[in-house]
Amino acid sequence: MNAVTVRWLGQRDYLETWHAMQRFTDIRTPETEDEIWLLEHPPVYTVGVRGNHRKKPEELQSGSPHTNIPLVRTDRGGLITYHGPGQLIAYTLMDLARRNMSVRDLVSALENATIALLKQYGIIAQARRDAPGVYVEGAKIASLGLRVRKFRSYHGLSLNVDMDLTPFQAIDPCGLKDLPVTRLTDLGALVKVHEVAVPLLGCLMSELHIDTLSSNLGQLPDAEPTHDQPA
Fold it and tell me: What is the pLDDT of residues 149-167, one digit of tens each?
């Protein structure tokens, strides 16, 4: 049985969630079930490892009205991006060795799941080999960033649903200058994050070849023991 635990976390602080992903990855065993976390974050800029050598991210323009938004230097791949309410986050905590997947396989699975989801709303989207993520007519609608330690992944994807896009104007998203961004509501899909979460989960399960949802949980894993598969 290829099962997964899903956590529906609502709106969660970025640092709290990031540290919970790290702890989960550190203590999981070869028998620990993989997990998918679905949530939103309050407004926050995050900088990946490619930007962490800079004292101040050049992409965050000084004098911007959005410089009061917190900035977190994180351990995912990539450069700077923005998270906020109205953006659906899917964190994929996977044992890649057990799934016989490479990091590139996981990236492709996340991109393909997002493309399949958008197709359900009549939106044609594409991935770019040179810049991970999902794009609609050249505008970015979903960003990807992963961390893999000992073949175990965390972080994942963010999909713009009905969020305020103006904070992206203060940055070059993922280091791509003048890259336009878009959202589902701008493309004719008048939906909310909670309405998109279940269809996205279905697409992720299909792309990751997961056939069973073993648990639905509503809290971070620090609240209970790590969920292991039955022997």
Answer: 999 999 999 999 999 999 9
Active site residue 203: no
- Residue type, position 68, single letter: N
Are 98 and 209 spatial neighbours (Cβ–Cβ below 8 Å)?
no
Identify whether 230 is part of a domain: no
CA dist., res. 87 & res. 229, Å (int): 31
| Count of beta carbons in the 10 Å neighbourhood of residue 230 | 8
| 136 alpha-carbon distance from chain centroid | 18
Instruction: Kindly name the residue from 36, 174, 208, 210 that is annotated as catalytic.
Output: 174
- CATH, residue 117: 3.30.930.10
CA 225 to chain centre: 24
Reduced to 3 states (helix: H, G, I; strand: E, B; else coil), residue 185 is helix
Q: Which domain holds residue 211?
A: 3-223
Q: Does residue 38 belong to any structural domain of this protein?
A: yes
How many domains does the chain divide into? Answer: 1
Short-list 142, 86, 82, CA closest to 110: 142
Interval 96-124: pLDDT, tens: 999 999 999 999 999 999 999 999 999 99
This prediction has a pTM of 0.90
Distance, CA of 109 to CA of 208 (rounded, Å) = 6
Q: Which residues contact 85 (CB under 8 A, 6 or more apart)?
A: 11, 40, 41, 42, 43, 163, 164
Q: Specify the DSSP element, H or E, that contains 205.
A: helix 193-207
